[in-house]
Amino acid sequence: MHNRNAEAPAAVLRRAPVLPVLTVRSLEDAASQARALIAGGLFALEITLRTEAALGAIAALAKTFPGALVGAGTIIEPQQIKDAVEAGARFLVSPGMSPRLIEAAVSSPVPFIPGAATASEALALRERGFRALKFFPAEPAGGPKYLAALAAPLPDLIFCPTGGIDAQKAASYLALPNVACVGGSWMVAPEIIAAQDFAKIERLAREACGLRRRI
Q1: Strand, coil or helix: what is 199?
Q2: CATH code for the domain defined by 8-209
Q3: 0.90 cut: is pTM over it?
Q4: Active-site residue identified among 46, 77, 121, 200
C-alpha cells in the first residue's frame, strides 16, 4: 500500500540536524523554550504528549510562531492523531507502532514518523509505505552500530534516532548515511529549564544547528 505521506516526513527530518523534543508544563514554559530554540535556529519542534499542557501548547506555539514547524510526539493512540492535528500539529511522531496505530497513521493528514527499534519493525513499516522512521530508544536499542547495520538491507529508509542521545553522541549518528537527524532534549534539559537559562538553550540550539550530517 502506498502511503501518501511517504515524502513529507523525510522533509520534516531534514529541516535541521537535530529535532528538539520538548516536555512542557505550561503555555508559558512552552513559549519560553520554543522562543529560545527558534532563536538558535531550530525551527522544527516536537512537543511530547506526556503532559496535560501539551495540546494547548501546540495550539499556542502554532499561532505564536507561524514560521516554525510544531509537531506532536509520543503518539500512542489513534485518537491522539486527531487531537494533535486539530490543535495545529504539522507532523506527528510515535515511539513505536501497533497494528491499530499503523492503520490510523497511514491516513494521517500530516506527516507521520513512526517508531521502530528492530529490523523487523522497520521492515513492517516499510511495507506500509513509511520511509522515514524514528529509531527509539536509540542508545538502549543498539546505537549507531545497529543503525549502520540496517543501512545495507534497508537502503531506502532514513531514521531519526532518539533516546539517550546528547550533543557528544549526536555526531556518531549523523555520520551515518541513513540518519537524517537526531532527536534530543539536551538543549532543554530539566536543570536548564529550572534555572530559566534561556540564553543557554539558544546557544545549545545554535551549536546543534552546526552539527554535520551526511544526508
Answers
A1: helix
A2: 3.20.20.70
A3: yes
A4: 46
